[in-house]
Amino acid sequence: MSERLIQILLSAFPKLLLYCIKVTVPLTIIVFILSLILALCTALVQIYHVKILDKFAKFYIWLFRGTPLIVQLYIIFFGLPSIGITLNAYVSAVIAFSLNYAAYNSETIRAAILAVPEGQTEAGYMIGLSGFKIMTRIVLPQAARIAFPTLMGSLIGLSKDTSLAASITVVEMFKTAQQIAASTFEPMALYCEVALIYLVLCTLLTFIQRSLESRLEWKKTDVEDAA
Question: What residues contact 146, with CB distance under 8 A and at least 6 apart?
Fold first, then answer.
């Protein structure tokens, strides 16, 4: 490795790391939270068979799971202006990622809720709890434990997919690497450097996932022993 290349990588690293912390990580967190809220609402609409909304939820899931994420990004950012709706790149990315991931996460949450034994709900009604309290105090906490590994996998995937935001001009970590590569003519080394940062980020998230999973398993075992 030449001295010039080493110098390029060393000078690029602080800037790449800055945009990772400044744009990539916040984008991931914002999208994940919004997608979970929308996913939960969509799952509940299907479980309770809410009129009209039930069919709309199924159509929405079918549409966003059946089309590529990058196409959805292009439609929202480049397509909507043609019908008079103009959004900046960052907002477009948040909307596209949130809608896409919510479609997948809603099925995960729905399956987790349905996996909770019906006896839990029946027991709640027998002691006089309302449907809302049964769902929030009994069903959802158990469903959250069931869905946790899959949802964390979704978060890890999202942290990498945010690089697609570069395709609609969002200046995040990957877009920054593209800009530096264009001026230094060292795309291979710079893209490998970005890949390494993504790898570290995903490794950290995986570590957090395993740590939380072990705690949830400990709590589950502890409750069973106490019973």
Answer: 112, 115, 116
Task: Band the pLDDT of 223: cuts 50, 70, 90.
Answer: very low
Output the domain CATH number for residue 174.
Answer: 1.10.3720.10
Helix or strand (DSSP H, E) at 32: helix 25-47
Radius of gyration of the chain (CA): 22
Q: Is 135 helix (H, G, I), strand (E, B) or coil?
A: helix
Evaluate whether 213 touches 145 at the Cβ level (below 8 Å).
no
Question: What distance in Å separates the CA atoms of residue 82 and residue 64, rounded to the nearest whole number?
Answer: 21
Contact 134, 44 (CB under 8 A): no
Range of the domain at 201: 3-226
Report d(CA 81, CA 85) in Å as an integer: 5
Helix 3-19 with 173-184: angle, nearest 10 deg: 150
pLDDT of residue 215: 81
Q: For the chain, how far is it from start to end, CA to CA, in angstroms?
A: 62
